[in-house]
Design goal:
It contains eight helices and four strands, in the order H-E-H-E-H-E-H-H-H-E-H-H. By secondary structure, it is an alpha/beta fold. Helix 2 runs parallel beside helix 3 (about 85-105). Helix content is about 50%, strand content about 10%. A four-stranded parallel β-sheet has the order 1-2-3-4.
């Protein structure tokens, strides 16, 4: 990864923005999910993500400028059915980049954490089942979710404003506020939601 970052720097002379958007979801209970699948999700969503950042961070420090966009998820704000490892990985991403943001502010490096909700992507089709095979189904939440174009537009707007965090989606984002201010109500609502 470090060599690739250096190749990009050699070609363009500068790196302005790093976008960490790779990830894989899950559609299986915590009980049924194998440890191998748990590790695979953490490897892709957390360790792979921060490996990219660690490769580019020395360049940003040398330039005394740079912006990192990391895609977490609304699942990084609360757990949900069939998403135990996925949610854990997205919680980890938020914690890591909140810390990094504080540490690198003095180096003129900014971090924006995006937390999308229901977005119309193929994430559910490619999600891992308990044994690591693909879920293979377009879930209702993704099928009826916000378009990718609108999602990206909102994220770019947040980056231009150097926002530390942006929530993107529809009414599902209310769950984050309800959990914060009315946790009892949150848990009674969330347990009635469809898992797919």
């Amino acid at each position: 990864v470090g060599m690739l970052a250096q190749q990009i720097l050699s070609h363009y002379g500068k790196i302005d923005v790093l976008i960490n958007n790779g990830g894989i979801s899950q559609r299986a209970t915590a009980f049924d999910t194998t440890m191998e699948v748990n590790r695979q999700i953490m490897e892709v969503n957390f360790f792979g993500n921060i490996a990219m950042t660690k490769a580019v961070l020395p360049i940003f420090r040398q330039q005394q400028s740079g912006q990192i966009l990391v895609i977490s998820s609304i699942a990084g704000k609360f757990g949900f059915f069939l998403r135990s490892a996925y949610s854990a990985s997205k919680h980890a991403v938020i914690g890591y980049y909140e810390s990094l943001s504080l540490e690198e502010e003095k180096n003129n490096i900014s971090v924006t954490i995006a937390c999308p909700g229901k977005i119309n992507t193929s994430i559910s089709i490619n999600a891992l089942s308990a044994d690591g095979s693909a879920h293979g189904v377009m879930d209702h939440n993704q099928d009826t979710g916000m378009s990718v174009e609108i999602c990206v537009s909102q994220i770019i707007r947040a980056m231009k404003k150097n926002k530390r965090e942006v929530m993107v989606g529809g009414k599902e984002l209310l769950a984050v506020k309800i959990k914060r201010f009315f946790p009892g109500l949150f848990w009674s609502i969330i347990r009635k939601q469809k898992a797919v």
